[in-house]
Amino acid sequence: MGGVEKKKIIIDTDPGIDDAMAIFVALRSPEVEVIGLTTIYGNVYTTLATRNALHLLEFAERSDIPVAEGSHVTIMKTTKLRIADFVHGADGLGNQNFPSPKGRQIDQSAPAFLVEQANLYPGKVTVVALGPLTNIALAIQLDPEFSKKIGQIVILGGAFSVNGSVNPAAETNIFGDPDAADIVFTSGADVLAVGINVTRQVVLTDADHDKLAQSGGKYAQYLSKILEFYYAYHHDAYAMQGVYLHDPTALLAAVNPSLLTYIEGVVRVQTTGIMRGLTIFDNSHKRFEEQTEWSHKPIVKVAVTVDAPATVKLVMERLMNL
User: Fold this and answer.
1) Which partner from 4, 52, 147, 165 sits 20 to 30 angstroms from 273, CA to CA?
2) Distance of CA 191 to CAs 51, 151, 155, 280, Å?
3) Does the residue 288 lie in any domain?
4) Catalytic residue among 55, 88, 234, 246
5) How far is Cα 280 from Cα 273, in angstroms, rounded to an integer?
6) How many domains does the chain have?
7) Can you give the pLDDT at residue 294?
8) 250 by DSSP, 3-state: which?
9) Quick check: is 1 in a domain?
10) Residue at 143 is within a domain
11) pLDDT score of 287
């Protein structure tokens, strides 16, 4: 790498099988330095997300990386959360019942940690948000300067011009806390949304899974075990012989932006009613006369294409070469 500065990344995560893959890919990426994990509900409740994050770092022998626990409720204090344990198993990691991690989370909350790191390294920190956006929105509320000081926020979320994953309108992470998502999209931060319109093009096939299982690397071995549950879910839900690589794709968008192409415009999130969680992209082609909730909102980037073969190849290489 020579003198190239590594990109500092904080992964906001709800591990989750594909979160585990994304975290391992990040730890195996020479271009980045993972400076912390922050936890959120989504695939599992926040407490278990923290435990899983600590467990994954311990497995990777990277317990030096701090874990900050995030919010247990949505930004509007809703406690009835949508938890996707039917996708990832009751423990979030394919029901492997791993032993409890020895380490524990830091005393700081996730939003406080995010604000602190953005202040320590202004313009240098990328947050990769792999779950609902509550922690990021709380950081924005905690420090009005946060959206200027954070380098980039890469969001795994949204369904742009395609149906959602929870229902026809909404994608899972945005649906998890639509109010928080709207705060983040309109915050003025450098935001890149990687939606399921893109991540569903990136598939790890059954053959790739076999390759992982046969490879001697410890990450490949670990993941091939936990992936069995995920493959079974995709087989039932989508009748497909493979799994979508949602989280690793978003992570790699932060590491290597050239894997994707983007459009720019304003994104708003529907926060009520039957369309709750819907992400609407304004392509800015029409100049509207009236002042509305869309006027003078900051521009964000939305991913529209991905080099799927290159993305899968990178994921496989980084997980297998040890």
Assistant:
1) 147
2) 28, 9, 7, 15
3) yes
4) 246
5) 15
6) 1
7) 81
8) helix
9) no
10) yes
11) 74
Question: In this structure, what CATH number is given to the domain that contains residue 11?
Answer: 3.90.245.10
Helix, strand, coil % in the chain, rounded to nearest 5: 40, 20, 40
Exposure of 56 by Cβ count < 10 A (0-12 exposed, 13-18 middle, 19+ buried)?
A: buried
**Residue 76 domain-assigned (yes or no):** yes
For residues 180 and 81, give the distance between their C-alpha atoms in angstroms, rounded to a whole number. Answer: 14
- 């990021």: which residue's tokens? 136
Distances (CA, A) of 33 to 5, 48, 193, 245, 263: 9, 24, 21, 21, 27
Evaluate if pTM is beyond 0.85: yes
- 14 among known catalytic residues: yes
Residues above pLDDT 90, as percent of the chain: 85
Instruction: Tell me the DSSP string of 196-216.
Output: HHHHTT-EEEHHHHHHHHHS-
Q: Tell me: pLDDT of 288 over 80.
A: no
The range of the structural domain enclosing residue 238 comes to 7-320
Report the pLDDT value the prediction gives residue 289, as an integer from 0 to 100. Answer: 78
DSSP state of 155: E
- Is the preceding omega at residue 16 within 30 degrees of 0, hence cis? yes
pLDDT digits (tens, 9 = 90+) for 205-261: 999 999 998 988 899 999 998 999 999 999 998 888 899 999 999 999 999 999 999
Phi, psi dihedral angles at 290 (to 5 degrees): -75, 155
SS3 of residue 269 by DSSP: strand
Length of the chain: 322
Active-site residue (options: 14, 18, 19, 182): 14
DSSP conformational letter for 182: H
Report how far residue 124's alpha carbon sits from residue 210's, in angstroms, rounded to the nearest whole number. 38
Bridge-based pairing state of the strands 125-129 and 203-205: unpaired
List the Cα angle 18/21/23 in 5-degree steps.
Answer: 110
CB 125: neighbour CB atoms within 10 A? 22
